[in-house]
Structure formats: C-alpha cells, structure tokens
Amino acid sequence: MTTAEPLLTIFDVACSADHAFDVWTTRTGTWWPKDHTVGGAGDVDVVIEAGVGGRLLERRGDGTEHVWGEITTWEPPSRLGFRWHIGRPAEVATDVEVRFLAQGADATRVEIEQQGFERFGEQAGVLRTRNVVGWGSLLPHFTKAAEER
Q1: How big, in percent rounded to 5, are the helix, strand and coil portions of the chain?
Q2: 3-state SS, residue 1
Q3: What is the pLDDT of residues 30-42, one digit of tens each?
C-alpha cells in the first residue's frame, strides 16, 4: 500500500438506507461533534446543501461560514459524493464517496471511500493517517444518531 492509496472505511448501521442517508445529509449538525469543526466547539451547525453543487459547511452562530466542500454526487438514498477540503484551500480537496447499501429493511452497510491524497505530495501519508483517525472518531456519533431514530 502506498501512502496515497484510497482510504476505505466500511461499517454497518441498524436502520434503513433511506434513514441512514437522511441522517447523514439532513441532520448532520445533530451528530457531527462540534470540536471537529474549523472554528472548534461552540455555537456551530454543520450543514449539507442537497444536490450536486451544494456545499458542505459549518455555520457559526454569528453567521460566519466555513465551506468544507462541494457535492459532486447526489443519489438518495444510495450515494453521496463530495470534494472535501475542511480547513484547507479547495484546490487541495480529496474526493469522498459515501455509499449506503441496504442489507435488509433495518440494516445498512456504509462504505466511505476517500481518495486524492497524492495531491499532497510528501504529506500524503500524514493526511491519510489523520483521516483514518478522524473517520474513526466521527463515525460512532453517526451510528448512534442513525440507530436512535
């Protein structure tokens, strides 16, 4: 494996694919940890604007916005893709695809594939490792929110 190889994270949630997609895209601010934002903890909401061209962003209580990325694929309830550049210039975004694969009426496999680390040259491995840790700390919050209904 090279340090720029795509990162694939796979996990299961006990809910329908429709519900998982909905929680990920329309209720992001309810499960995304406030300390995983550009501005840090505090009065912040995380928003995903529906549809291709929509933005991923954090909105502070004072109206300040930090754009994290742009939606590139919008296929409810099965696929969401976005260019991801939280805390970095948009020119050095990675590409993320989130797939919601129904495994039954109340079971969904979620696959997150992130690629484009090679854009960071010698820092590719460091950034990829940070994302392994980041997804690992973030996804339990999503799983809990999706399964609580």
Answers
A1: 35, 35, 30
A2: coil
A3: 999 988 888 887 8
Structure tokens at 118: 């090679």
Task: Parse the chain into domains and list their residue ranges.
Answer: 7-148
Plot region of 110 (φ>0 → left; ψ -120 to 50 → alpha; else → beta): beta
Report d(CA 11, CA 9) in Å as an integer: 7
Record the tokens describing residue 108, joined without a space: 């969904």
- Please identify, in words, the CATH class of the domain defined by 7-148: alpha beta
Q: What is the pLDDT of residues 107-130, one digit of tens each?
A: 999 999 999 999 999 999 999 999
Closest CA to 5 of 120, 135, 140: 120
pTM of the model: 0.94
- Residue located via tokens 């895209």: 25
